[in-house]
């Protein structure tokens, strides 16, 4: 595909993500996406065929960002497995902080029964699980981590603890307005503590 085509698709996805985050998948308008991206509707439908397919692609784009963070950035440092766990949590936490539209879209997904996400998300969950599993079993072998931890539950706990912070951002940010960065860092340290207390012997 040409560079121009890739740039066109990127412009569409950026504006589509913004529109879906604001209005959800059903109330969003291709007309608005077309106007804001300055790409005509015919071209949008040429690439994505329908609003539903465009919405799926926005979800895939975000899930792929998470897969890149977890798949490429997290490696097993056998000399400091706790640092590996903390890095995994930190990368996901700051992904959510820096991708406000994704958080809003996932909130819309929850209210609509996650009909689209459930068909797109499994690969993302699995790659997070695989990376965590690699670190965990090495930690068990070294006598650092407890045996028989349910890793499915652990992944859900990491995701939930991080996601809640940004899904309830408006409430928390109003409470933390005078010292937001410090409070966000304190929240991250608290998440580390909860997860590591579960994992570590």
UniProtKB/TrEMBL annotation:
Keywords: DNA-binding. The keyword DNA-binding applies. GO terms for molecular function: DNA binding. Residues 29-48 bind DNA. It comes from the Bacteria. GO terms for biological process: regulation of DNA-templated transcription. The keyword Ribonucleoprotein does not apply. Pfam families: TetR_C_29 (PF17938), TetR_N (PF00440). Residues 6-66 form the HTH tetR-type domain. This is Transcriptional regulator, TetR family. It comes from Desulfonispora thiosulfatigenes DSM 11270.
């Amino acid at each position: 595909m040409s560079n121009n085509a890739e740039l066109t698709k990127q412009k569409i996805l950026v504006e589509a993500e913004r529109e879906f985050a604001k209005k959800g998948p059903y109330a969003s308008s291709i007309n608005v996406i077309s106007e804001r991206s300055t790409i005509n509707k015919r071209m949008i439908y040429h690439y994505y065929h329908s609003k539903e397919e465009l919405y799926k692609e926005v979800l895939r784009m975000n899930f792929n960002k998470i897969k890149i963070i977890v798949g490429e950035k997290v490696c097993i440092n056998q000399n400091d497995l706790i640092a590996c766990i903390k890095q995994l949590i930190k990368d996901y936490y700051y992904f959510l902080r820096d991708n406000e539209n994704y958080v809003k879209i996932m909130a819309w997904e929850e209210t609509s029964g996650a009909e689209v996400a459930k068909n797109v998300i499994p690969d993302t969950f699995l790659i997070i699980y695989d990376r965590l599993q690699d670190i965990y079993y090495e930690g068990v072998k070294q006598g650092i981590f407890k045996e028989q931890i349910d890793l499915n539950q652990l992944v859900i706990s990491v995701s939930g603890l991080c996601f809640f912070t940004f899904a309830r951002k408006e409430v928390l940010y109003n409470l933390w307005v005078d010292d937001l960065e410090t409070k966000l860092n304190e929240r991250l340290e608290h998440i580390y503590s909860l997860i590591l207390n579960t994992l570590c012997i």
